[in-house]
Amino acid sequence: MGEAFSLALQLVTSGNADLYEIVGLSLRVSLSATMFACLIGLPVGAWVAISRFRGRGAVLVLMNALMGLPPVVVGLLVYLHLSRSGPLGFLGLLYTPSAMIIAQTILIAPIVAALSRQVLEDLHTEYAEQFRSLCLSRVQTITALLWDARYSLLTVGLAGFGRAVAEVGAVMIVGGNIDHLTRVMTTAIALETSKGDLALALALGLVLLVIALGVNAAVQSLRMSARRQAYV
Amino acid sequence: MSSIDTVGFAPQARLAQREANLLPLRVRGLELSCDGTPILRGLDLDLAPHGCTAIMGPNGAGKSLLLKILHGLIAPTSGRIEWGNQSPAQVTKRQALVFQKPVLLRRSVAANIDFVLKARGKPRQSRDALLDHVGLLHKARHPARRLSGGEAQRLALARALATEPEVLLLDEATASLDPASAQAIEAIVRDACASGIRVICVTHDIGQAKRLADDVVFLHGGCVAEHSPACDFFPEPQSSAARDYLNGRLVF
Amino acid sequence: MKLNQSFGASIVALTLATSAIAANQSIIVQSTTSTANSGLYDYLLPMFQDKTGIQVNVVAVGTGQAIKNAQNCDGDVLLVHAKASEEKFVEAGFGTTRTDLMYNDFVIVGPAADPANVGGMDDVQGALSKISDSEALFASRGDDSGTHKKEVALWADAGVDPATGSGEWYRETGSGMGATLNAGIGMGAYVMTDRATWISFGNKQDYEIKVEGDDDLFNQYGVIPVNPAQCPSVNVEAAKSFADWLISEDGQSAIAAYEVSDQQLFFPNAPKN
Q1: If you write DSSP's letter for every residue of C164-184 in order, what string do you get?
Q2: Are chains C and B in touch, 3+ Cβ pairs below 8 Å?
Q3: What would the pLDDT profile of A43-79 be if each residue is shown by its tens digit?
Q4: pLDDT tens-digit series, residues B201-239
Q5: Tell me: the pLDDT tens digits for C200-212?
Q6: How far is A5 from chain C (nearest CA, A)?
Q7: Set of chain A residues whose Cβ sits within 8 Å of the Cβ of B119
Q8: CATH class entry, domain B3-246
Q9: Which of B141, B160, B223, C38 is most solvent-facing, going by the fewest CB within 10 Å?
Q10: Which of A129, A134, A231 to mutate to test the interface with B (most CBs of B within 10 A)?
Q11: Domains detected in chain A
């Protein structure tokens, strides 16, 4: 453990180019996936939050169940589609960062949708009567809810990002863990573990943990300043 | 006739409909049950085109519900309501309702007004005048949800006025405010009424009703127990329920 | 000899120069974890890339999965170690030609305590029989990889059906070589591994090689360009130049020169022409 700590420190301070490349790709892939997952998940979550329709209960159950999608299954599904012999093979996306972004987006969009649905439904309970009095359209209602819940939704995005940046199963399959092309933090950790270099694997894990801490701290401070203005 | 005639006629018809008078208000046989419990039982009401009406009555008489039905937020169990010749749901947009507890967006004071102006496609320039009118211009950049109760209600009123309503509905808008804040609200409401907006307010504040109302509708037992000009109602209420209410006795 | 070598090298350089015109090309090699984990590619690929400008991206999975991925056209070159499966792959039209590339050997590693008492044996079938007789723990890849196929064949040779001890003394991890070594060492089990992976493995603890030197432990690697007739997306030129370079004298001597802890990991044996 001590060895891992000093190794982690050494990796970071020595400006190890490979490490920065891997960290950079991890952040790029997972932040992009989080963004796309929000673009898909937030409108879906908002729409379900303000709508009452037959089978809504079943939709909620489905959304919550999809939060537990195993990354390996998502990876496999995306692989089957992006493979050269698959329906989207002509795009040539397999073993590229784009494929990893697609897989992680599919993995976390349900998380963003389900959690934002809860947040937005709570907010809508408060706003609904006022909004109906103002005769707002559906789109106006949804955009207003999304904007007013923005700080709570940051936490939702964070939950998605956390899952994306920490998963290894999906990116391993669709990215291939190719050095200097699709190797990210988690696949690098898996690789070092399989090489038996446990100290390096743990050191990389510590770096990942520090990054996660940093992102969480940033969001938390943003939320706290918002709370002071009663915007949360 | 030719289709051109029809096409030419349709927009005019819509225009005519939009410009139709909301008033007078005619309510006949209005009934409302909540979970099987009757709250309004065959209520009839006629309101004149102008002025300020106070709706009074003991707790549970259905005053707030009546207001929401008139605004088109709640559908009655049965009965007819005609604003001019239109139903409440058709005219919600031409009215504004101010709730007892203002629901303000998690944004700045100014952004709360901007939101409504934008939703209604009205120019943003009127925002400062509105805030000035309710005495909140100096707080335009403040977070709306950090305002005091009185300020928050004034902002809610400014937002209501931003929609340029023909009818302003107030649901115990000053119930939780201190006297000074309540009077500030009253002044704004009086201005609105003077500018030709039809005001209907639910209130328990007898002093406020006296100061604001031209006529008083007293609800009791799910019906209008009394509807008389304010100058008659307060000195000489006709119904025993209104008498008890004004004397501070529990009304059953 | 020296003249011959430099002549060959210049021929290779010349042929590669033409393909290098298409700079910034890249190919995907479907390969085994043993070659990737040992660091061989980190050593070889920069040389090839300097020479041709072709970027080689290695996907390291078990041989079984590598072959399946290549059959799905998700690779330009296949570099694995399961000769029978490789020949089947070519026969089915997925690959153009299969060429022997290099070899090393498998070993059985075990804990210092050596519960089955197989230390120093060079008869692998005998060692496996002793392990199964004493029901000493044995960790198998269980993942249809080249190493796993080899191990299954050796058990059959030894006349033992380890499946009867599955979950008891015979533990199938269903994972890559490194993960299986980690698991095996964690539970004190014998593990069959290729020598390259073992030498470069970093978590040996008290483990050492117990069985080695049997001819049956020979581990042959082959290289196969994926057939463009089957997979039109294949980068034919680049794939061929990579395969050609590997079996050229340049490539072969580069493979021979790769060492970890002063030990040669792979022994080139491409047919000379």
Answers
A1: GGBTTTEEE--S-HHHHHHHH
A2: no
A3: 999 999 999 999 999 999 999 999 999 999 999 999 9
A4: 999 999 999 999 999 999 998 899 999 999 999 998 888
A5: 898 999 999 999 9
A6: 18
A7: 134, 136, 140
A8: alpha beta
A9: B141
A10: A134
A11: 2-228 (1.10.3720.10)
